[in-house]
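[Q] Does anyone have a clean structure-token version of this?
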Amino acid sequence: MIEYIKGEIAELSPTRMIMECNGIGYELNISLTTYSHFNGLQEGKIFVYEVIREDAHLLYGFATREERELFLLLTSVSGVGPNTARMILSSLKPSDLINIIASGDDISLTSIKGIGNKTAQRIVVDLKNKVKPIEGLDGRLGKMSSGIITETAEGAVAALVMLGFQKNMSQKAVSSILKTSPTASVEQVIKDALKIL
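[A] Here you go.
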């Protein structure tokens, strides 16, 4: 089992990272929260969770142990797989997710793609007594940076397509968001798009 990888960030997008360590490039599936943490950095340390299936060997990467713990808690809920857990962690900051679960607010979870009423209720019921506030987490997740509109749009559309949305729908959503918020960062555009798609 891999605990973490420490090395050079060879590639970084809102859903994927390649971390090079001793000449080996590890492909990691990441959330928007983790992307925000590493955006602009040349190297770093990423916590890892391996998913080994018959047809694939996948690595999921997290900026903090706390985010990884939330991912593991989410995937322990019946009906929540790794990609759904990543979608939840991309839509909500870990601290917000903890507050939502702890307060029993399943309605907020249903605004995330792929989360219906039953799944949202199951997440709250199963995890309500397992989560507790994580102090200082937000401060460690790093700054969000903005970029040129075309780069922002391209990055956001690419991330949304990788998350399972149709390209033309993603482009429309991203375009409308950037019209009203031209200086929004890639992360913010994706978060806003996840709410309307």
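[Q] Thanks! Anything notable?
[A] The chain is about 50% helix and 20% strand.
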